[in-house]
Structures are given as C-alpha cells and as structure tokens.
Amino acid sequence: MAVLDATGVLAAVLAALLVVGPFAMISCTNGPTMGALWWSRRRQSYWSERGVPTPPSLPFVGSIWPVMTGRKSFAQHLYDIADHFREHGYCGMYSGVQRTLLVFDPEMAKQILCKDFGSFHDRGFPTSDSDPLSQHLISLSGSKWRNLRNRLSPTFTSGKLKLMFPLMRDVGDQLNATMAKEAHKAGGEVVHSKEAQKADGEVDLSALLHRYTVDMIGSIAFGINCNCLVDENAEFLAMSRGVFTTTPAQFLRFMLMAIHPKLGSLLPFKLVFSKVHRFFLDLMRSTVEHREKHEVVRNDFVDIMMQARDKDHGDPDNNIALTTEVMAAQGFIFFVAGLDNVSNTVAYVVHRMAQDPALQQRVADEVLAVINKHAGEVTYEGLKEMDLVDRVLQEGLRLWSPGGLAMRKCNKTTMVGDVLVEKDTNVMIVSHCMHKNPAIFPDPERFDPERHTAEARQQRHPYAFIPFGEGPRVCLAERFALLEMKLALVMLVRDFEFARGPRFEASPAVDTKAFFPRPVNGFLVRVQNRG
Ligand code: HEM
C-alpha cells in the first residue's frame, strides 16, 4: 500500500511536523504545550494503567516512529513488537495517541474473530462518499458490509470456481508459454536443449507471476483479457503498479489517518492516484454497458454484482446500492488484495524448492502422476487431488506470510481472555507471530510441508494458522486464491526445473516500505526444461 521513497520520507517528516509542530510552536508560550504533552502522555498511559505490556512510545507519535520515518513497513513493525511480547499472547501499542491491542494468542484470536464477532465486526477504516473507491468490502462497516458481503459471497463457491476453471486454465497455459519465452530470453534456451543452456538463465519469478495475477483478476473479475503475460507494456500492468504506489500527499494522508482517522479524511485528495481511480471507474462502466447492450453472461464477478444490483431495494441505511462506482470499488480491491499476495507466495515456494531438489522432485512426481491420471490434462478435479502441492503452498503462506494481520475495531466493550477491551479500541490479530511461534511450529524457519498434514493440523489450535483470517470476515477469495496458486505452481513445475543461479539470494531482502511483503530484487531462479 504505502511505497515510500525519499519523497515519502519527506512526507513523513511533514506529517510529524504537522502533528508535533503546532505544539512545539506553542512551546514558546509554554503553558498550553505542557498541557498538550500531559494530554498525550495521559492517553499513552492507557495500557500501563491496565497492566497490559507496551513498547516505548513518543508523545503524539506513539509507537510508530520507525514506520513514519520509512525504516520499517507497518506490518513488519507490528510483527517485531508482537515477537517481543510473544510469551504474553497480547500487548498494547499506540498509533499517535490511539490505542491498539495486538493479539497473538490463538484462543483470544478465536474469540475476537469468531465467538464475539458481534463486538468486533469492523476494521475501523474510514470510507467517504467523495472517494468512491473507498467503498469496498475491506473498509465498509456494520450492516452495509454485512449486506454487501452476503451478496458477494456466492462469487467463489466450489460450483462457481468449477465454472470459472476453463478461463483460469487459459491464463495458466499462458503463464507456461511466457515462462518458456522468458527463460529463453534470459539465456536459458529452455525450449530447445538443456546442453545449450548458458551460464545464467535466470528469471524473476516475482515479476512473471505478478503478470499472471493481473491477467487472472482481469479475466475473473472484469471479464477482460489484460494481456500482461503476452505484453510487458500492457496498460493494465502499469495500472496494477499504480495501485501499490503512493505519492507523498497520499502517504501524508495515510499517516494522518494512522494518527487519527478524522485528520486524514479531512484532506482533499483520494487514497489512490486519480489516473488509477479513473481507470477503474471507466473500466467498470464500459464493462457493465457492454454486457447490458449485448446481453453477455459470463458467470463471473461482474455478473454477480449486476444481478445483486438489479435486486437492490430496502432501507438505504442498511443497504449499499451497487452503483457503477461501488462495483468499481470491489473490482479495485480485488487488485489490491489479490496480486502481490498470490504472486509472491508462489514465487517464494518455487524459490524454496530451488534450494531443495528432493522436495522439488517429490512435488513434480505428484503433479505428473495426477496429470497422467487425468488424460494428460490439468483439470479442476486433478488439482484437488494434489495433496503435496497444497501443503507446500500452505507452508509458503506460513513463512512468507502475505496476510499476517487481521484488523478489527471494538464496537462493544468485551472481556477477551483476561483483558477488558473497551469500545473504540483498535485490535490487530498478528497471525504472523503465531505462524512463527516455535511452541506451535518447532524450528519455525524450516520449510516443512509435513506441518500441514491432516494429523498435524488436528494437533494444533485451529486458530494457530490463519493466513486468510477467520470468522465471518475471513478472506472472501480464499478458495479462489488457493486454486489460482495451485494452478500456477503446477503449470511451472510440470515443464520446468528450478535451481540456484549466480544471482540467487537464499534469504531475499524484503522491501521495508511495502505494505505486503515484497522481495527487493525479486525472486531470481535459474530455469531449465524438465528432463
Ligand atoms: C495468498 C492470497 C491471499 C491472502 C493470504 C489473503 C489474506 C486475507 C486476509 C488475512 C484477509 C483479512 C481477513 C480477516 O480480517 O479476518 C483478507 C480479506 C479479504 N480478501 Fe484476501 N487474501 C488473499 C487473496 C485474495 C484475493 C485473490 C482476493 C480477491 C480476488 C481477496 C479478497 C479479499 C477481500 C475482498 C477481503 C475482505 C473480506 C471482508 O472484509 O469481508 N483476497 N484476505
């Protein structure tokens, strides 16, 4: 979300000055400053007064200074705090003067995400009528969220996924074809002969799989061919990068929102670039017009939204009208939630297998045996039979941790474990911390798909491994994401072998400024034809 560079740091400094500056200026006139400092300190003593451990905090800024200065991503900073208090199962922190409870105990997570969902049904993200792309499932609250979620839930049922699978497989075939070309370009000569392979033959899997996910969401969510796997300069690819890019002004708004939501939403610009904003609105408008005019039925996400729109009625306070803008917001959030998460998890898994030829061979054996059984085809049913493929992806989700946080805002004071969580407290379930807890996953940095057998799952708390969140607000597209990742992995492993090349990084550096984990130099692996 927040990609921060030198200009971003400038914005962070501006944000800090904006918050601290006025008080500093008043300091010349002392009395009010002392009052403001006292007020800030008072708010920041909330957790210690209740015996909840917290990291150190700065007046007005709270515990998020490393994020404001761009030294750490928001998620990484939270992971580090949670790790420090791991034995405790929870801790407090402050964003500005706003209190947040971090939870990394499976039983408390279960209570918040599921048992007491009625007290924690929102994430507390602001939405605004003047910013139509903000009105999506991730941000909406209360009955409007419930109403929309109920109407969009049928998008990814098993029946719908089976209908979509031929479209998905077309994108998978294209991934396979583009991998062959990319490896050839890189000097691998994979298509022709193993012997002809030159010294490097490396391909950046992160970039390639990003193109795959854009094409997949374009096809499934918008019913269009984005052509990113075929054409590196496709417009959609530029737009998808725009989704993850933040200007200093937008970063300023983001930081102000972290300090206080009302401060951020007062600013007169939107969270995403206006060019990107217009692109998604125009795309949804033209797609809907085309379908209405030509009576196209495609059984995809746009169809589901159009059918739901035609049934719109009832109390506007509880109902969200599916205008073209609101539909565009849902398509937009698929782009935010469904690209890097998926592409980098698959890339990470292949990268791990490049370091473990025996595991890679076992995965390939399973893939080839199941494809053989299904008359040489990659089928929906066949993918469901691939147990080891499933487990290596689960292990990738655990270690790469693309969805390491589930956010909630308490809407009704509730006792959680031994902590009284008062209304308006922000709550973050730090699943990443549970996924790396040696008491739950011994030797946690080891890549071991055996952790995900049915027996192993039965032996741990059901909320100890929750890469897609849990409860009524669990990831809407969990089944789709798993199928999409499986398909990509199968299409790669079926025809190619992966190994360490000259630029291989065993532990790739992760971008400290990206919201979702992202490798700074991509995932470079050497590729050759499967012999
Ligand atoms: C590896 C891939 C993915 C991971 C790890 C992931 C993870 C998550 C997590 C942790 C949440 C929050 C759950 C909670 O608060 O309890 C979430 C929510 C969501 N995800 Fe995903 N996700 C993935 C892929 C996708 C894809 C491909 C899409 C869309 C096509 C998507 C759409 C959504 C939506 C719309 C929500 C909000 C649900 C709601 O609030 O009702 N996700 N996801």
Automatic annotation (TrEMBL):
One of its GO terms (molecular function) is iron ion binding. PROSITE patterns: CYTOCHROME_P450. Keywords: Endoplasmic reticulum, Heme, Iron, Membrane, Metal-binding, Microsome, Monooxygenase, Oxidoreductase. Coiled coil: none annotated. It is found in: Endoplasmic reticulum membrane; Microsome membrane. Its cofactor is heme. Heme binds at C475. It comes from the Eukaryota. GO terms for cellular component: endoplasmic reticulum membrane. The keyword Cytoplasm does not apply. Belongs to the cytochrome P450 family. PANTHER family: CYTOCHROME P450, CYTOCHROME P450 6BS1. May be involved in the metabolism of insect hormones and in the breakdown of synthetic insecticides. This is Probable cytochrome P450 6a13 isoform X1. The gene is LOC117644935.
